């Protein structure tokens, strides 16, 4: 192989996991299609609540109300994944999520405007999706060898990028073209693909079952996390980023008031970060060659904080200088670029965090540790939504971004000084 060809191979996405495991390929495809529909529903529920209430705070309550069930489902979901056949757990979770989406679709077809039903169905959908996501991530190391886990993480980054890029755009387009019910019905169809990806897996019974007591099983997971300083610090950094730097709850108000463009602006901004995530995934071949993955996580955390501050600056300028034409295309484009850069660097961190969790954590407790990670990546943004909604309602739309990004950078610096060993984490000798 010539040097230029070798360099190109190392730069581009590594698809070896697809060639190595057909089961992984089917799981990836099913999850990708189902997740696109899932994100359509997330955006559509937010648009429907805003259409009913014209309140950013009401939109933030979608996340706030779902947080408790997500935490409970996340903790117990990890126990289920460690105690029972992981294929069966993922299947049941997918069915529950699908039923919740059907309820949303029927409600929209009937022209309903019930906030409690929207909040309830969205909560059930999110909680079931949390359990399913935990189980799928715990399955991957059973399908692939350890050296392919970073490549699998990059492929899952592509999956997330497809979900969050196409989902908001398709959701906004479907709402514009046919109403809320159209978006929900598309998700009902796409979600069926998730069934196929899970149903065709081999049996995945636990190697060493978790304790029968859910509380004891959860306690074992927390006890492991207390001993696992690298895993714990990685999750802490992610929680800070998720809880302090969430812009998405601001999008409906930005589209309706500050920048103009309405639903289209919401779709573009929601898809921008995912586009960056997906683009980075396509050029992620080099990530598997990095041994000091702890140092890499620290670098991208700082860069992500800078992009959040930059996003706040763009919103501030747009608020101070309203566009005479009604739709501030330049501001929308600038914010989309900043969000895309943030999505790209966050994906690098996600690749290494996932590789660390899957390589350094024993299989018999992996589901419970994945549940703690899932609580961060699903519960964290919902806390961030509430924080951003409250701060924006009390102050200005740009306030949660500028303040959140600066606080995130400061906290990362302080915590890193207290945990200096994290930067030396070695992927070839993974220690939790």
Automatic annotation (TrEMBL):
GO MF entries: transmembrane transporter activity
Pfam families registered for this protein in UniProt: MFS_3
Membrane-spanning residues: 27-51, 57-77, 89-110, 116-136, 148-170, 182-204, 233-251, 263-284, 296-320, 332-352, 397-415
Source superkingdom: Bacteria
Keyword annotations from UniProtKB, A to Z: Cell membrane, Membrane, Transmembrane, Transmembrane helix, Transport
Membrane topology label: Multi-pass membrane protein
Residue ranges occupied by any Major facilitator superfamily (MFS) profile domain in the UniProt entry: 186-432
Intracellular or extracellular location(s): Cell inner membrane
Any Gene Ontology biological process: response to antibiotic
GO cellular component: plasma membrane
UniProt name for this protein: MFS family permease
Biological source species: Mycolicibacterium iranicum (Mycobacterium iranicum)
């Amino acid at each position: 192989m010539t040097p230029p060809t070798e360099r190109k191979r190392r730069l581009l996405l590594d698809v070896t996991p697809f060639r190595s495991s057909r089961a992984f390929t089917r799981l990836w495809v099913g999850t990708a299609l189902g997740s696109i529909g899932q994100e359509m529903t997330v955006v559509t529920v937010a648009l429907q609540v805003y259409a009913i209430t014209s309140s950013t705070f009401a939109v933030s309550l979608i996340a706030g109300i779902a947080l408790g069930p997500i935490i409970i489902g996340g903790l117990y979901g990890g126990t289920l994944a460690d105690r029972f056949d992981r294929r069966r757990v993922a299947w049941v979770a997918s069915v529950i999520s699908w039923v919740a989406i059907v309820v949303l679709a029927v409600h929209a077809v009937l022209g309903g405007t019930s906030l409690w039903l929207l909040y309830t169905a969205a909560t059930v959908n999110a909680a079931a999706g949390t359990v399913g996501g935990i189980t799928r991530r715990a399955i991957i190391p059973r399908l692939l060898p350890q050296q392919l886990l970073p490549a699998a993480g990059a492929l899952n980054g592509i999956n997330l990028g497809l979900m969050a890029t196409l989902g908001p755009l398709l959701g906004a387009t479907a709402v514009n073209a046919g109403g809320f019910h159209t978006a929900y019905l598309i998700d009902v169809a796409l979600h069926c693909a998730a069934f196929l990806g899970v149903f065709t897996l081999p049996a995945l019974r636990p190697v060493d079952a978790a304790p029968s007591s859910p509380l004891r099983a959860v306690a074992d997971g927390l006890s492991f996390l207390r001993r696992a300083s690298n895993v714990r610090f990685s999750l802490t950094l992610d929680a800070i980023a998720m809880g302090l730097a969430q812009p998405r709850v601001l999008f409906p108000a930005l589209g309706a008031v500050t920048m103009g463009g309405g639903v289209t602006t919401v779709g573009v901004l929601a898809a921008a970060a995912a586009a960056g995530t997906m683009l980075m995934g396509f050029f992620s071949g080099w990530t598997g060659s990095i041994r000091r993955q702890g140092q890499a996580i620290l670098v991208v955390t700082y860069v992500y904080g800078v992009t959040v501050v930059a996003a706040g600056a763009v919103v501030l300028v747009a608020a101070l200088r309203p566009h005479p034409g009604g739709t501030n295309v330049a501001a929308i484009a600038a914010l989309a670029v900043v969000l895309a850069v943030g999505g790209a660097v966050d994906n690098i961190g996600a690749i290494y965090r996932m590789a660390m969790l899957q390589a350094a954590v024993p299989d018999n407790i992996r589901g419970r540790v994945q549940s703690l990670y899932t609580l961060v990546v699903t519960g964290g943004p919902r806390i961030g939504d509430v924080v951003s909604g409250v701060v924006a309602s009390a102050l200005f739309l740009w306030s949660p971004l500028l303040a959140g990004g600066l606080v995130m950078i400061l906290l990362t610096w302080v915590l890193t000084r207290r945990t200096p060993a994290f930067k030396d984490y070695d992927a070839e000798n993974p220690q939790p």
